[in-house]
């Protein structure tokens, strides 16, 4: 949008307006086209009662759909030919009518080329099979004739009788009386090798053994003329006697998909036929090559313009689909459009309308006017590639109500931080960072490619993962863990061994010899017997502090929402009692945690909080942190108890009083003179004078109060997942390091060490960098959706979907 727009503001959605545009029918197409290029107007469907076939531009949409079908056909043909569409630098100026004609001609030509090519290829494959039959059957007949002649010479040498014509079936026939000899017929062809045994068995049974079958194996697979697939086949010659046997054989050949070819016994004619077939094959090969070359050149021509034509066809369909949402004026000379647009876009929309009127040579320009309505506008946040993924996290829960405070502003920081609290290890964080930097460096390449589902998800959230990894490195420095190994990065440890007997690193044998470790956890805690109790205490208390701070932030944002929407009831009877209740209990607990850290006291906070409710008047004794603590606890407990009816009772009664006051004396009103005003008032009455159901309001407030009171406890406890997952991550990392890597290097064997390294890498990547990352991500998501957003976020709005050709292209892809 360049410098035309105000600065991006994510906290509140863009102010929207309902606009009406009256467009002359001659400039309607160009106007909608320019508005689609602008992409800042969401049209309302003014013909929702009509079916798609009853709308004005149904025919044009059908034409655009037919063009899209032809383009899909071209794309399939190009992909089959291994010629993907290319982006042409030449932009041909082509209108839709010319494109429709051109696509029709190209489709007809391509279909004809394909049909001719298929016929020629089938003829070519048939001739190839015929040539194989001539060769293999010819060899059989030649060997049979040679065998017969040698046998005849032997017989004439022994008997001296005149030679008789020797039958070919030498193996099956013995010398018989010439008067009883039968003239045999034969068939030749090819049968799939997989069916050859069954083919032979069926022939034998059908003719009761009155056939003679010879088969010859074809070495290389043969392209079948019917299916076009390469199949291993056998050449067969079957001899039979009588027409009845012939008919049976023909039927069996058809059933087995055996292709039959004519064959002559005459050797001279066989040679002549083979030469003729070879000549025809050569001619057909040349013709097929020319056809393939012509088809490829045609597809290349289509491929050069495909993107442009496809964009034009999709654009045309989108324009007419939008025009169908416009209502036709009574005079049928104008189209009336209504839609939502951001207020800042008014000037750009008007400029687009003026440009469309000028370019279409319309004598009358479009009329642009803003309508006043009580209808809730759509929600529109202007995001960039960095903030869009965080906005998607919030929108997955629910789209913000119009101009409601947007949690995404805080999610940008709090979401990766809460993730990092559970994933704190700067070694693992570095691995995530390197993987994310690879995605960011190659983002231009990846954004133009079709990625897999998981890869596309990771690429879409690359900036979320970037911040997650940076915060993980930060919390890893605090926890002092690098693949569970501590380092003295920020100085020397504050503790040292008193003597050599404390080699087991137990705190009993450690003394403080230097200043406190400057940043994060002292490395000496790792491996000590008190490591787990210390880390448990630290992380549990830290989780409660983080949770109370974030929940307070949610309540404070509800105050800004109430002030923005000028809802005083929500300020005094929702924000104030909620703030008091939460902080009287868990805010006080947070203060005690900080004071205990500050003073180094050994007060049992469990005991303090439990007996604050069970025995609030008892003395605290050794569990007292500061003077007057008992009085403070009594006051806080009283405030918490007062806050519950404060939330529950006043708001429903005050809402009822406001409703009665707003409708008092409004039974009679001055009627407007125009029909339009009457219609507007009637619409207003339909929404404004709804019956006030006090019981519903009271029950809703009761549910809301109970939900908050119980939620204050459960939500605070829910933040303990930060402690649990952080501990689990640390312990898993420690187990993989100690039990795999360290143990493998304990052997003086390089094979075991290499195997140990491989197992450690696979476990780290598979469990800690993939499964644990997903687990921490989902838990951080839960904390934001439930514990944080339920304090202020309604999320019952609907998204702003402007008419834009860019969005249409993305959806189609």
Automatic annotation (TrEMBL):
<feature type="coiled-coil region">
    <location>
        <begin position="89"/>
        <end position="123"/>
    </location>
</feature>
<feature type="transmembrane region" description="Helical">
    <location>
        <begin position="462"/>
        <end position="479"/>
    </location>
</feature>
<feature type="transmembrane region" description="Helical">
    <location>
        <begin position="572"/>
        <end position="598"/>
    </location>
</feature>
<dbReference type="GO" id="GO:0046961">
    <property type="term" value="F:proton-transporting ATPase activity, rotational mechanism"/>
</dbReference>
<keyword id="KW-0175">Coiled coil</keyword>
<feature type="transmembrane region" description="Helical">
    <location>
        <begin position="750"/>
        <end position="771"/>
    </location>
</feature>
<keyword id="KW-0375">Hydrogen ion transport</keyword>
<comment type="function">
    <text>Essential component of the vacuolar proton pump (V-ATPase), a multimeric enzyme that catalyzes the translocation of protons across the membranes. Required for assembly and activity of the V-ATPase.</text>
</comment>
<keyword id="KW-1133">Transmembrane helix</keyword>
<protein>
    <recommendedName>
        <fullName>V-type proton ATPase subunit a</fullName>
    </recommendedName>
</protein>
<dbReference type="GO" id="GO:0000220">
    <property type="term" value="C:vacuolar proton-transporting V-type ATPase, V0 domain"/>
</dbReference>
<feature type="region of interest" description="Disordered">
    <location>
        <begin position="145"/>
        <end position="176"/>
    </location>
</feature>
<feature type="transmembrane region" description="Helical">
    <location>
        <begin position="631"/>
        <end position="649"/>
    </location>
</feature>
<keyword id="KW-0406">Ion transport</keyword>
<dbReference type="InterPro" id="IPR002490">
    <property type="entry name" value="V-ATPase_116kDa_su"/>
</dbReference>
<dbReference type="InterPro" id="IPR026028">
    <property type="entry name" value="V-type_ATPase_116kDa_su_euka"/>
</dbReference>
<feature type="transmembrane region" description="Helical">
    <location>
        <begin position="417"/>
        <end position="441"/>
    </location>
</feature>
<keyword id="KW-0812">Transmembrane</keyword>
<dbReference type="GO" id="GO:0007035">
    <property type="term" value="P:vacuolar acidification"/>
</dbReference>
<feature type="compositionally biased region" description="Basic and acidic residues">
    <location>
        <begin position="151"/>
        <end position="161"/>
    </location>
</feature>
<keyword id="KW-0472">Membrane</keyword>
<keyword id="KW-0813">Transport</keyword>
<dbReference type="GO" id="GO:0051117">
    <property type="term" value="F:ATPase binding"/>
</dbReference>
<comment type="similarity">
    <text>Belongs to the V-ATPase 116 kDa subunit family.</text>
</comment>
<feature type="transmembrane region" description="Helical">
    <location>
        <begin position="542"/>
        <end position="560"/>
    </location>
</feature>
<dbReference type="Pfam" id="PF01496">
    <property type="entry name" value="V_ATPase_I"/>
</dbReference>
């Amino acid at each position: 949008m360049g410098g035309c727009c105000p600065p991006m503001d994510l906290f509140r959605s863009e102010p929207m307006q309902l606009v009406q545009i009256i467009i002359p029918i001659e400039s309607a197409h160009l106007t909608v086209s320019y508005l689609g290029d602008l992409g800042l107007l969401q049209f309302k469907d003014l013909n929702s009662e009509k079916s798609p076939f009853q709308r004005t531009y149904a025919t044009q949409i059908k034409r655009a759909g037919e063009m899209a079908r032809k383009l899909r056909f071209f794309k399939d043909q190009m992909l089959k030919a291994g010629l993907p569409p290319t982006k042409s630098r030449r932009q041909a100026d082509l209108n839709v009518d010319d494109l429709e004609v051109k696509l029709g001609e190209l489709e007809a030509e391509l279909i004809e080329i394909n049909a001719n090519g298929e016929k020629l290829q089938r003829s070519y494959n048939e001739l190839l099979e015929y040539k194989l039959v001539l060769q293999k059957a010819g060899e059989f007949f030649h060997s049979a004739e040679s065998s017969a002649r040698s046998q005849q010479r032997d017989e004439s040498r022994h008997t001296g009788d005149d030679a008789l014509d020797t039958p070919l079936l030498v193996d099956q026939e013995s010398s018989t009386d010439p008067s009883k000899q039968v003239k045999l017929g034969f068939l030749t062809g090819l049968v799939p090798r997989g069916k050859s045994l069954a083919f032979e068995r069926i022939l034998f049974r059908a003719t009761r053994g009155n056939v003679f079958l010879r088969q010859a194996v074809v070495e290389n697979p043969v392209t079948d003329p019917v299916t076009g697939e390469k199949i291993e086949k056998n050449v067969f010659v079957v001899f039979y006697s009588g027409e009845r046997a012939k008919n049976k054989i023909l039927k069996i050949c058809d059933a087995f998909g055996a292709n039959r070819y004519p064959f002559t016994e005459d050797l001279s004619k066989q040679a002549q036929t083979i030469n003729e077939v070879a000549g025809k094959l050569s001619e057909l090969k040349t013709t097929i090559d020319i056809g393939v070359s012509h088809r490829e050149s045609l597809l290349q021509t289509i491929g050069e313009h495909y993107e442009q034509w496809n964009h034009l066809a999709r654009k045309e369909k989108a324009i007419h689909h939008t025009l169908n949402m416009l209502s036709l004026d009574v005079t049928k000379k104008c189209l009336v459009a209504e839609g939502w647009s951001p207020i800042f876009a008014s000037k750009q929309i008007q400029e687009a309308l003026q440009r469309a009127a000028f370019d279409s040579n319309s004598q009358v320009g479009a009329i642009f006017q803003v309508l006043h309505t009580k209808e809730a506008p759509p929600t529109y946040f202007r995001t960039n590639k960095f903030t869009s993924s965080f906005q998607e996290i919030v929108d997955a829960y629910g789209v913000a109500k119009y101009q409601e405070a947007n949690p995404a502003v805080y999610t940008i920081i709090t979401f990766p931080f809460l993730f990092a609290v559970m994933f704190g290890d700067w070694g693992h964080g570095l691995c995530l960072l390197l993987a994310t930097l690879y995605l960011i460096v190659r983002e231009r390449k990846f954004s133009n490619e079709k990625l897999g589902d998981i890869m596309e998800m990771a690429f879409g959230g690359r900036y979320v993962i970037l911040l997650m990894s940076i915060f993980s490195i930060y919390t890893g420095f605090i926890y002092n863990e690098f693949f569970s190994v501590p380092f003295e990065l920020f100085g020397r440890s504050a503790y040292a061994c008193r003597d050599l007997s404390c080699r087991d690193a137990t705190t009993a044998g450690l003394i403080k010899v230097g200043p406190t470790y400057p940043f994060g956890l002292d490395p000496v805690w790792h491996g000590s017997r008190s490591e787990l109790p210390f880390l448990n205490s630290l992380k549990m208390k830290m989780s409660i502090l983080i949770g109370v701070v974030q929940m307070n932030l949610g309540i404070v944002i509800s105050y800004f929402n109430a002030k923005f929407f000028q809802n005083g009831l929500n300020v005094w009877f929702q924000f104030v009692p909620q703030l008091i209740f939460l902080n009287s209990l868990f805010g006080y607990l947070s203060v005690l945690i900080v004071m205990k850290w500050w003073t180094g006291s050994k007060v049992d906070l469990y005991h303090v909080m439990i007996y604050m409710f069970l025995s609030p008047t008892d003395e605290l004794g050794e569990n007292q942190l500061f003077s007057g603590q008992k009085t403070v606890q009594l006051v806080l407990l009283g405030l918490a108890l007062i806050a519950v009816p404060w939330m529950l009772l006043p708001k429903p009664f005050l809402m009822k009083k406001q409703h009665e006051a707003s409708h008092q004396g409004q039974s009679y009103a001055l009627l407007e003179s125009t029909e339009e005003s009457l219609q507007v008032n009637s619409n207003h009455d339909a929404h404004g004078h709804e019956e006030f159901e006090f019981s519903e309001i009271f029950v809703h407030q009761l549910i809301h109060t109970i939900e908050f009171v119980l939620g204050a406890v459960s939500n605070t406890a829910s933040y303990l997942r930060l402690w649990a997952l952080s501990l689990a991550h640390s312990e898993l990392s420690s187990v993989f390091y100690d039990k795999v890597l360290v143990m493998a290097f304990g052997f003086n064997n390089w094979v075991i060490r290499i195997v140990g390294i491989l197992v450690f890498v696979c476990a780290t990547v598979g469990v800690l960098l993939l499964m644990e990352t997903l687990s921490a991500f989902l838990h951080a998501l839960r904390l934001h959706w439930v514990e944080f957003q339920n304090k202020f976020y309604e999320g019952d709005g609907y998204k702003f979907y402007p008419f834009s050709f860019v969005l249409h292209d993305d959806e189609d892809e």
